[in-house]
């Protein structure tokens, strides 16, 4: 998991790419985030090459979080996972929906969508 701590870093995620990217938005003040990050880590451990995962600390980098919501048109939630492909939102998981299995399903759906467009 890589830190997402600058606007420039976020803008780089919007560059079209066949690679799947995940933004994980985390609040250090939210108990629900503790279980969500464990699910994201579990997913990452099972599928280390499936997607690049970016950790966004909401308290430390509010301006980046605001840019994510504004640019992607995704209402801010915490915890939140946003799956990107080609700089576009493919899936959003919030709160208790953030489970390793749900991430796997979202990645499969994004991959299936990409293969159908070919």
Task: Count every beta strand, where a strand is a DSSP E run of 2 or more residues.
Answer: 5
Reading side by side through the largest sheet, how are the strands ordered?
1-3-2-4-5
Low-confidence stretches: none
- Strand-residue fraction? 15-25%
* Number of helices in the DSSP assignment: 4
How do the helices and strands follow one another from N- to C-terminus?
Answer: EHEHEHEEH
Average pLDDT for all residues: 92
Domains (count): 1
Specify the CATH class: Alpha Beta
Helix percent reads 40-55%
Q: Give me the Rg, rounded.
A: 13 Å
CATH A-level architecture: 3-Layer(aba) Sandwich
Class inferred from helices and paired strands: alpha/beta
Look at the structure and name the CATH superfamily. Answer: Glutaredoxin
Biggest sheet record: 5 strands, mixed
Terminal Cα span: 30 Å
- Could you tell me the CATH topology label: Glutaredoxin
Task: Please state the overall shape, judged from the principal axes of the Cα atoms.
Answer: globular
